[in-house]
Backbone:
């Protein structure tokens, strides 16, 4: 045996050593660009398991609408039993590689395989039921390149959840492509920073994969996106949704296309529990998908200040803070400073991934945090009547607002359907304890604090039609109200959402 048999020689003589940049993320990017000369900018990979016709439409759209950027095409046949492999072999693209997996071991296995073998600076995953459109790739690259801290981006789509859907209507693929071509104009105002992304298309930097590692195969299907999103954020990177770019997800997920709905529901339950177990009580739906719909509806039409400051208080992982930040972006303010105060330590780490300043303490210490600080927008994530010392809290919040600043808060309705059904002896899930305070009483407190500019929205309980009719019948039979409609609407109100505008310096 030769003494050199077990020596591997890596010839780096023709490579340029990386040069340190002025921040961590730029240094990482610089290192990979220096060490990867002559490679394509992008590796696009498609994983296909049967569904040949959809695969054909997907690949053909890539070939037609991605030519403005150099890319490697990686086609992975994930154990298909149809003619997928033969089709991949026939695809007329010179920079193409094909991987054949003989037995389907799950999509995560194929994804990890692609992550280990791709050549480009950016990896783009496309599910085989997606049809891309004009400018899709250049638009995503534009967003990715705008900030070295952006690590993962995805376009808006049809047939998708997580408020990522773009309502582009069409009756044919040809009409869809025509409308998408008109829509897909790069516009940074339509980019949104998110806590989590659903990824029918995923673009990620090579250096991000190096930092966070492979897909966790413990999430067989469901909640894999959620887990991936958390890990990218905790590696120090931003997640961006490009709502300036439409692609078509050719899959009717709302009606369970290709799914056994009973098995799918069970899979969701298992995936959610796996996520909570992994992140020690963090719940992807309750803590990372806690959209406050009223925020956008109540957002004032006035022109925001050029350097706005946003504060979120007990907003779980910070999604309502990002909602305000994204709404400001839509209005042309591309940067806003953000801060968070949380009374629950489990959110501290994730809040740091989206906020410039984070403090964790008891709600009784909020006034100390607010001292000598001022904000243009403050959102209180929990109902104010679940907090101690409501008048004192309101005074502190209003005092921290700049003139014409906006305070968003909610008041839990303690005389709602849950309370009513409980009194009737029915089993109804109750929310956390809230001080019993009526709308009229709360408005009186606001008057004492000289608040005279506010909008109030009703946030209803989500209840099916049959249950609503049972409630109406109970009201009629119980003869508890003369105006059944008014009583019903009051009971169906879960919370009252307030948008309070500070007038001048008065408090």
Residues:
């Amino acid at each position: 045996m030769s003494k050199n048999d077990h020596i591997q020689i890596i010839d780096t003589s023709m490579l340029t050593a990386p040069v340190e940049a002025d921040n961590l993320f730029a240094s990482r990017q610089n290192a990979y660009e220096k060490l990867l000369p002559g490679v394509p900018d992008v590796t696009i990979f498609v994983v296909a398991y049967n569904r040949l016709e959809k695969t054909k439409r997907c690949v053909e759209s890539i070939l037609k609408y991605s030519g403005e950027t150099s890319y490697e095409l990686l086609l992975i046949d994930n154990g298909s039993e149809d003619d997928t492999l033969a089709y991949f072999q026939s695809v007329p693209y010179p920079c193409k590689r094909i991987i054949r997996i003989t037995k389907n071991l799950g999509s995560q296995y194929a994804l990890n395989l692609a992550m280990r073998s791709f050549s480009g600076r950016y990896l783009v995953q496309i599910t085989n039921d997606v049809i891309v459109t004009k400018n899709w790739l250049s638009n995503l690259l534009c967003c990715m390149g705008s900030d070295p801290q952006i690590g993962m981006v995805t376009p808006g789509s049809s047939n998708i959840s997580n408020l990522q859907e773009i309502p582009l209507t069409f009756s044919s693929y040809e009409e869809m492509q025509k409308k998408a071509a008109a829509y897909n104009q790069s516009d940074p105002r339509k980019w949104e920073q998110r806590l989590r992304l659903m990824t029918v298309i995923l673009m990620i930097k090579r250096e991000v994969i190096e930092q966070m590692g492979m897909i966790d195969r413990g999430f067989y299907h469901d909640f894999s996106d959620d887990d991936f999103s958390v890990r990218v954020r905790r590696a120090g990177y931003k997640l961006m949704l490009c709502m300036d770019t439409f692609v078509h997800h050719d899959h009717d997920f709302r009606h369970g296309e290709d799914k056994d709905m009973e098995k799918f529901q069970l899979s969701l339950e298992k995936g959610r529990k796996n996520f909570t177990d992994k992140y020690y009580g963090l719940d992807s739906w309750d803590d990372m998908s806690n959209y406050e719909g009223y925020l956008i509806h109540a957002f004032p039409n006035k022109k925001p200040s050029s350097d706005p400051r946003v504060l979120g208080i007990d907003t779980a992982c910070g999604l309502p803070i990002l909602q305000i930040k994204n709404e400001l972006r839509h209005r042309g303010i591309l940067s806003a400073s953000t801060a968070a105060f949380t009374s629950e330590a489990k959110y501290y780490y994730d809040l740091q991934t989206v906020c410039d300043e984070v403090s964790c303490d008891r709600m009784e210490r909020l006034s100390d945090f607010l001292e000598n600080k001022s904000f243009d927008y403050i959102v209180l994530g929990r109902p104010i009547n679940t907090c101690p010392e409501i008048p004192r809290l309101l005074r502190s919040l209003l005092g921290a607002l700049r003139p014409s600043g906006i305070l968003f808060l909610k008041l839990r309705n303690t005389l709602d359907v849950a309370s009513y059904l409980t009194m009737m002896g029915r089993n109804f899930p109750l929310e956390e304890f809230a001080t019993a305070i009526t709308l009229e009483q709360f408005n009186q407190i606001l008057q004492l604090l000289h608040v005279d500019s506010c909008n109030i929205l009703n946030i209803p309980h989500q209840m099916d039609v049959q249950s609503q009719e049972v409630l109406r019948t109970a009201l009629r039979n119980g003869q508890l109200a003369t105006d059944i409609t008014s009583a019903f609407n009051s009971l169906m109100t879960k919370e009252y959402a307030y948008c309070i505008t500070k007038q001048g310096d008065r408090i």
Remarks:
- The longest strand covers residues 238-249.
- The chain has two domains: 24-278, 290-501.
- The chain is about 35% helix and 20% strand.
- Residues 290-501 form a domain with the Rossmann fold fold (CATH 3.40.50.150).
